[in-house]
Every structure is written in structure tokens, then in C-alpha cells.
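Submission checklist for the structure archive. All mandatory fields must be present; incomplete records are returned to the submitter.

[x] Identifier: Nodulation protein NolU
[x] Organism: Bradyrhizobium macuxiense
[x] Residue count: 210
[x] Sequence attached
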Amino acid sequence: MSVSMTSKEPDRSPNSSSDRLRAFVTSIHPTRFATRLDPLLSAPTVLRLQKSPRLQRRLAGLLLDSEIEQNGRDWVSDLLLGHDPRRAALLAGGIWYARSLLKLVSKKDLSILVGMIGAEVHSFGIRHLSSAVATRSIIDPEQLSRQIEHDGHACLGAWLNEAPALDRTRVLLRLPIGTAAENPAAEHRNAAGPLLSLIMGHLATEAPTV
């Protein structure tokens, strides 16, 4: 009796598991590598390491404590569908401070603020004014920008805390060390779910990147 034998070809599609793993490693924030490898490594050296196909799986294993796929499990898109976590954090912060965004009408102040947080965050926050959290208005554009970044990252961190450890870590590794995402407060935990639901609905209309 003859037996037909076929070999499984590796997945070489543009969105294959290996492609997503490579994209993930290259998107990890350099400060994360510096703390695990050598704080004296230069930025160009870290970038070369991240882009080395030969090292990428080992680097991912180093930062994820070897929790990456080892038995053929697909490397799927992360909780943010591969989108920039800082962008998601700023979008959350924009909703959080939507009332302040609406009250900032000076052309000069708007120019400063949009230059710091981006037009998308500004318009997205105002569009979701009904979900705003902060009731205190901030009229200084630079202070408002800092608060949007802080509370937005904290909100993202609170949302990530509800996820499995590996999924949470995959997103945090793409942020620099020391953001508010690492230490959210109770108020962020209370608001995170509804805000991130709005953001994920927005991001889901775009193609995954990692």
C-alpha cells in the first residue's frame, strides 16, 4: 500500500506568524532592551539587533521570559491589533479630557496642543465628549497635553491589567519604561473598559501592523 507524503510548507504570506513576530521585535521600545541587555548599548546598536532576523526570536524570548511560541502556536496580533500603544493611550487621554478640548478655542492654544497630541486625538476626544471623565477644565495647552498623555497611558495600563500576562507584556514592551501605564489608579480602572472599547472600535477599521 502506497502512502502519500506531503511536507508542510512554511507560511510565507505577508501576514504570517513569523512576519508578525519580526514586526513585534522591531517595534519594542529601545529602553526595554537596554535594561535587559546592557544600559550602555547605543541606540543604533539596539536597532541593528532588533532588525537581525537571526536574533529576533531570541530577543523576543529574552523580554517575554521565553513565553513566546515554542510548539508551533501562531504568533497572532496583539491586544491593540498591532497599533501603536502610545497612539491608543493618547486617544484615551483625549476622551478623558474631552471637555477641556472643547473649551480650548484660542487659535494659538489649539495650534500648540494639536502640535503635541495630534489632530486625530483632538477630534476623536471631542467626538466622544459624552464619555469624558475629567470634569476640571485645563486651559493651558502644554499642561493639557501632559495630562492627556499621563491619564491616557494610565487608562491603557488599567485595561491591559485585565488581560493575560503575556498579552499585557507584549503591548507594554512597545512603550518606554516609566509611563503611567505601569501604575494606573482606581479612577483609571473604573473608566478603562468603556474608553478602550471606543478606541478598539476605531482601530479595528484599520489593518493590523504587528
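[x] Structure attached
Curator remark: The CA atoms of residues 27 and 157 lie 18 Å apart. Residues 85-203 form one domain.
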